[in-house]
Amino acid sequence: MKVTVFGIGYVGLVQAAVLAEVGHDVVCVDVDQNKVDNLKKGIIPIYEPGLTPLVTSNYEGGRVDFTTDAQRGVEHGELIFIAVGTPPDEDGSADLKYVLAVATTIATHMQNHKIIINKSTVPVGTADKVKGKVTETLAELGKSTTFDVVSNPEFLKEGAAVNDCMRPDRIVLGTDSEKAEKKLRELYAPFNRNHDKVITMDIRSAELTKYAANCMLATKISFMNEMANLAEHFGADIENVRRGIGSDPRIGYQFIYPGCGYGGSCFPKDVQALIRSANQVGYEAKILESVEAVNYSQKEKLFEYIMSHFDGDVAGKTVALWGLSFKPNTDDMREASSRVLMELLWEKGATVQAFDPEAMEETQRIYGSRADLKLTGTKEAALDGADFLVVCTEWQSFRAPDFDLIKEKLSLPLIFDGRNLYDPKTMSEYGLHYYAIGRGLSIKGQKL
Ligand code: UDX
């Protein structure tokens, strides 16, 4: 089938590559000429396992192409995805200007029936706005072309996006048109491996499904972080509690890992956007407000532990920091806990000596060159001349380090672990002072 994807960001590019891989004929449109040129040369703008070979082989095979020519894009696709960004505006609401600009572009160039599919995460009611925009533009141009608007939210995780897209748990389709539904079922047929993954519903429910899914996951995390903080006060170990409650299948083991807060491009933005949308209809989303507040303070947790350990004075200290990205297997630093920590440490006059397997360039891009930030080539080099170690991201390569080497290199035998990677008993056997999240070790006066 002929498909066009507007917006070669994270969602658009992965979706386009995967649709091309299963044999569809895909054209991607973006306003960024540089991005388009790079993609044609096999330079992928984001780090995502498996994406580069997928894009390159499908480009070389002629199944996916990249262009800035919107007219060509609109003429090409009978199915047109909108996958442009919806950045938060000043008050945290999703800004729809890019989505609506694409709607106008589609209406301007369309000459026959089009199915317009909203893939961007957008507030409930956006499909109606897209419909309105297309109708208005067609009327202005005196065209009577017909179209459908479908909501088809994505649920992919960074670091696992290709796999999530190739093997989706579910494909949510919000539509009021049987014809559009039939076409989309045809489009997604290659992904229905063992059973039908398609769940159809009305458009508004599909739009809310996306927010409900992310907000539910964010709620699980903030809830666990609250339990971790309580465990800290009670002298209990949240890791035992986690195993204890996860064994109940109604609760489950996933997304109940306590830590130094959630980040990324989705959870913080979506929780905030749903709070704002709720406010706009006169509803106060109390649970979501708490989820956000708990996460906000959780990102400062490691800093609190550090301040408490050093009685508020870290001026002149060098902090080894392992992990900069908001989670492993990505170079994405958006809303990363490491940023909150680094910025607080800098305010107090400390120097950060950091290593991340993927996010070094991104860190450099965000913070530029500054005397109190040193980026090192290996995790071991980050320890050189450092006073203590902080872990912010649970990269696989941080899980079983050489603790003797850590102790030898640091001037103080001290680790602050924001992801609970290590066993407190083992740490004390190595003679390392160990702070973790919710393990009853971090209240002042309870230092190992
Ligand atoms: C998320 C959703 O998982 C995905 O379905 C949606 O489409 C987009 O948003 P992503 O932002 O890529 O995906 O990352 P995810 O793996 O969900 O992690 C988000 C954050 O939560 C990370 O900072 C992670 O460290 C944190 N997290 C996750 C926890 O702190 N504890 C957990 O138990 C799980």
Automatic annotation (TrEMBL):
NAD(+) binds at D30, K35, T86, T121, E158, K269, R334. Pfam families: UDPG_MGDP_dh, UDPG_MGDP_dh_C, UDPG_MGDP_dh_N. Substrate binds at F155, L156, K157, E158, K210, F255, I256, Y257, P258, G259, G263, K327. It catalyses: UDP-alpha-D-glucose + 2 NAD(+) + H2O = UDP-alpha-D-glucuronate + 2 NADH + 3 H(+). It comes from the Bacteria. The active site is at C266. SUPFAM superfamilies: 6-phosphogluconate dehydrogenase C-terminal domain-like, NAD(P)-binding Rossmann-fold domains, UDP-glucose/GDP-mannose dehydrogenase C-terminal domain. GO terms for biological process: polysaccharide biosynthetic process; UDP-glucuronate biosynthetic process. The keyword Oxidoreductase applies. GO terms for molecular function: NAD binding; UDP-glucose 6-dehydrogenase activity. Gene3D superfamilies: Cytochrome c1, transmembrane anchor, C-terminal, NAD(P)-binding Rossmann-like Domain. It is an enzyme of class 1 (oxidoreductase). Pathway: Nucleotide-sugar biosynthesis; UDP-alpha-D-glucuronate biosynthesis; UDP-alpha-D-glucuronate from UDP-alpha-D-glucose: step 1/1. Its EC number is 1.1.1.22. Keywords: NAD, Oxidoreductase. The keyword NAD applies. SMART domains: UDPG_MGDP_dh_C. InterPro entries: 6-PGluconate_DH-like_C_sf, NAD(P)-bd_dom_sf, UDP-Glc/GDP-Man, UDP-Glc/GDP-Man_DH_C, UDP-Glc/GDP-Man_DH_C_sf, UDP-Glc/GDP-Man_DH_dimer, UDP-Glc/GDP-Man_DH_N, UDPglc_DH_bac. Belongs to the UDP-glucose/GDP-mannose dehydrogenase family. NCBIfam families: NDP-sugDHase (TIGR03026). This is UDP-glucose 6-dehydrogenase.
